[in-house]
Design brief:
This protein is mostly helical. The protein has helices spanning 2-8, 18-46, 54-178, 182-189, 196-208, 216-223, 228-233.
């Protein structure tokens, strides 16, 4: 039995460690002998025969080797799965570290953008307040403009009324000016102290022509101009202002 077992479990079988090989052979022989002993007892007690043949021994050894190979394959597969699982864990750990590093960078970026957004919100709020104030001012100015428009309409009506009243006087003044001759101007200039009405009219002409020095001396100088009557006839009355 030992020889047969040694043949099947010899040194060519790498699944069996050399230090356990002899013990394993002895164990297989012991098991087969125990089966023979038990079969003898079984026959003596129950008068029933359990045949233990050399083929049974060969099948037992073959079955052991097949199971040994199956279990070895199973263990190797489990080891491979464990190794793959560990490599996945290592890879996942590296990815987690990379993600953590990216997360830290993104946290800084998010923090900066959050600060920027908060500042932008404050600026928007300030602009909204300014806009509201401007809207209030615009509403107030609109109301003021309406009041001014109303006042302008009234003043325009008054001005048109005054103009309509002044036009006849202006036309009469032009006709009177047409009758004025150069010798009349010379006569007026000859006055050392002119009549009050004459001086008042000359001063008005000074003001209308924009001459700042309103005096009889300045009036005489104005009347000494060569084209005085011509200039007076062609005076732009539309350009006269309160200033």
């Amino acid at each position: 039995l030992e020889a047969v077992a040694s043949t099947f479990l010899g040194g060519e079988n790498a699944l069996i460690p050399e230090k356990h090989r002899d013990n394993l052979i002895q164990h297989i022989v012991l098991v087969h002998q125990a089966v023979i002993t038990s079969s003898t007892k079984f026959h003596s007690m129950l008068r029933r025969v359990n045949y233990v043949t050399p083929k049974n021994y060969l099948d037992f050894v073959s079955t052991f080797l097949r199971l040994l190979e199956e279990k070895d394959n199973f263990v190797m597969n489990q080891c491979n799965r464990l190794e793959v699982g560990l490599s996945k864990l290592v890879e996942a750990s590296k990815q987690i570290d990379e993600l953590k590093a990216k997360l830290e960078v993104q946290k800084v970026a998010v923090s900066a953008k959050t600060t920027s957004c908060n500042e932008l919100l404050k600026e928007i709020e300030q602009r909204e307040e300014v806009t509201k104030l401007k809207q209030k001012e615009a509403v107030k100015k609109s109301a003021d403009m309406e009041e001014q428009n109303k006042l302008i309409i009234v003043e325009k009506a008054d001005a048109e009324e005054a103009l309509n009243m002044a036009l006849p006087a202006l036309e009469a003044a032009r006709k009177a000016l047409e009758n004025l001759e150069k010798r009349d101007v010379v006569e007026i200039k000859s006055f050392a102290t002119p009549p009050r009405q004459v001086q008042a009219v000359c001063e008005c002409v000074l003001v209308v022509r924009g001459i700042r020095d309103v005096s009889w001396k300045s009036a005489k100088a104005m009347m000494s101009e060569n084209n005085f009557l011509h200039n007076l006839m062609n005076l732009n009355v539309d350009g006269i202002t309160n200033a």
